[in-house]
Fold these 2 entries.
Entry 1:
Amino acid sequence: DAGVIQSPRHEVTEMGQEVTLRCKPISGHDYLFWYRQTMMRGLELLIYFNNNVPIDDSGMPEDRFSAKMPNASFSTLKIQPSEPRDSAVYFCASTLGGAGTQYFGPGTRLLVL
Amino acid sequence: GNSVTQMEGPVTLSEEAFLTINCTYTATGYPSLFWYVQYPGEGLQLLLKATKADDKGSNKGFEATYRKETTSFHLEKGSVQVSDSAVYFCALRALSYNQGGKLIFGQGTELSVKP
């Protein structure tokens, strides 16, 4: 299996622009997680899905952030409008079952100028 | 609430030195415990895990024992190599109806091993 795939790997944008991050989980996995990693706050869970349904979005920082999972093989995390403080590495992870091992993608490094 | 505390880094060691990275946790019930490793520019990879008290997880020479009495899960390796240089994350997972197995991570400990 190719593992969890994320795109783009790097994104540089200007403040106010819309940013869309993409994730393809491992085939057959039924949980998908979005994390954000920063020096100041470490690794934070933003939202997770089970069978394409959002279960817990309490980590989403504010209304500028939204996430969707239209099908079992694709999820997006959108920031609109983006701000410099959104600069971070965003990771997607997937697992089979709530007790399964989480497999992480390589991350998207976002820089908002 | 659930939380994980790791010793602060960076930790710098010489090759073949003994490594300990401390991790303590706070959780209700009986969480599963994990160590993840992040190499530069990459995502996190599971290093080892333990799912119940007194379990020992081990992989690639690393070990950690789930100590419920001290709520700890310290990571150890007897002889580190330059290739072990990375950031190490301790994490817990407390399964419940409304938590669905989400991981709670510590802040990470950077390890640098010099030749």
Note: The longest strand of chain B covers residues 86-93.
Entry 2:
Amino acid sequence: GQQVMQIPQYQHVQEGEDFTTYCNSSTTLSNIQWYKQRPGGHPVFLIQLVKSGEVKKQKRLTFQFGEAKKNSSLHITATQTTDVGTYFCAGPSGGTSYGKLTFGQGTILTVHP
Amino acid sequence: DAGITQSPRHKVTETGTPVTLRCHQTENHRYMYWYRQDPGHGLRLIHYSYGVKDTDKGEVSDGYSVSRSKTEDFLLTLESATSSQTSVYFCAISRTGAANEQFFGPGTRLTVL
């Protein structure tokens, strides 16, 4: 079945450093989504990318969707302590969808002040 | 917020006992999902529903059953809980069923001793 792999699993940074997490799918995706989960919280939708090569920015966060629509990245510039949490990518599951998503394993970001 | 509540929020139970987790939504969305979250595995789909009495299995459905007798409620049952089912369980809804963003409930932390 479809697999979505995410690296790294953990990332520790000093406040002010940049951070990047990468997502790779075993199949071509119609879209890719990114979610953030704060410690002790629930996943919250950040953004959806649809077009090949698409780049979207949200303040210090930059999201990219690969040309082949099989990979994506999330880059945070100048991390802050508020960026702490787990970042997940997710893509539509194959077959009859019913809105199903396959999530990556997530990248846990720790920011040291 | 998408008006999703989960109950109980925390539960400790013993191996072999039945457990039912409830997900309640206030917005009458058709598509609902149950996930489990474990370290290193991200969010894995257990079961999903695409309407009242319409449910199907996800990627990790063994040992779990679901029911949806009303649009607003989606129940997850562990018929005979095992220690491997110790996890955090999240319910989610989709507003469109088109594999777009999902909205998550606050989660239930289940410990099976």
Note: The mean pLDDT of chain B is 95.
